[in-house]
Amino acid sequence: MEVTRVAFNSGSLSLEGMLAIPEGTGPFPAVVVCHPHPLYGGNMDNNIVDGVCKALGQLPLISLRFNFRGVGRSEGQFGQGVGEQQDVAAAISFASTIERVDPAAIGLAGYSAGAGFAIPVILGDTHIKAFAAISPPLSMFDFETLKRYPKAKLFISGSRDNFTPVSQFLQFCRNLPEPKEYATIEGADHFWWGHEADVAASVATFFAKALKGMQ
Question: Which of 45, 145, 187, 200 holds its CA 20 to 30 A away from the CA of 5?
Fold first, then answer.
């Protein structure tokens, strides 16, 4: 696995990221991974973001994780959600230009607020072929718009999630259009300590199935 620190532009700002490319010539499917809320300690080194990216590389898929504006070495400051949407779009655009990425097989994963920031972007983006939401905070963002999202999607949450009760999560997922997958992991809360491997494996397997079928 070749892991490289990268920088790309989001408007006038430079954002830092981490690109992981499996051995081989490719082209490979790729997944952009968005970290949790910047104002509550979220960054690209988060335990779930790190685990998902490592699991993706084993399948093998390329992963691009990045810090939202104002986090780590990324320039700027918190953009009230609007700026973060621009950062998601910029990361997708950057991923599509990477030499060993198959631009017809790009997915996006978001953990917690990272999934919420991504929603308006994926609804209008033609690059993204599959979407995974990890611990989606359903009451904090407009996830209802995904009821018209026709592409492959995965929703995964812990049975003890601190923000979204399991009953609310399951009811929401049942009302989503196909194709979809959803699951709860027993005993896990919003932060997934001790359950990282389960989440990472589920997300990576989903993308391997969804994106390799695009090639």
Answer: 200
